[in-house]
Amino acid sequence: MIVKIKRGKTVLEAELRKGLGAFRGLMFSRKKNVVLVSPFECILSIHMLFVFFPIKAVWLDSGKRVVDIKIAHPFQLYLAPSRKAKYVLETHDTSLKFRIGERLKFI
C-alpha cells in the first residue's frame, strides 16, 4: 500500500509496511521511501544489515509527531530512538529536513 506523507507543502510517497513486511524496511529494496508500522508504541529499533546506502530514519509517535531522527549508514548494527514510536519513515533522501515535534499527515 502506498501512502502520501504531507509536511507543509511537501508530499512524499512511501510504501506502508505492516506485520512481517515491516521487518525488512529498505533492506534489499529499490524503494525510495517506506513507512514501517508497529501495532503499538514502543522503542522501535532498526538495523542496516544488507542496506547498501545511507538513509534517514524518522520515528513518529501514534499522533504522527516526530520523536527522533537519525542518519543510518550501511551495515550499522543498531539504531534506537530516544522515545517510543509507532511508525518509522525510512528514506533515501538524507537531505530532507525534519524537526522533533513536527507533525506529519498521512493522506
3D structure, described in words:
- With about 110 residues, the protein is mostly beta strands.
- It has a single domain, classed as Protein of unknown function DUF192 (Jelly Rolls, Sandwich).
- The chain contains no helices and 7 strands.
- It has strands at about 1-5, 10-15, 35-40, 55-60, 65-70, 85-90, 105.
- It has a 7-stranded mixed sheet with strand order 5-4-6-3-2-1-7, with no helix packed on it.
- The mean pLDDT is about 90.
Instruction: Tell me the number of helical segments per DSSP (H or I, 4 or more residues long).
Output: 0
- Provide the CATH topology: Jelly Rolls
What's the CATH class label? Answer: Mainly Beta
Kindly report how far apart the N and C termini lie. 12 Å
Residue windows where pLDDT falls under 50 for at least 5 positions? none
Main beta sheet, described? 7 strands, mixed
Q: Enumerate the strands of the largest sheet in spatial order, edge to edge or round the barrel.
A: 5-4-6-3-2-1-7
User: What's the β-strand tally?
Assistant: 7
Helix content: under 10%
Class computed from helices, strands and strand pairing: mainly beta
Order of helices and strands: EEEEEEE
Short description:
With 107 residues, the protein is an all-beta fold. The protein has no helices and seven strands. It has a seven-stranded mixed β-sheet with strand order 5-4-6-3-2-1-7, with no helix packed on it.
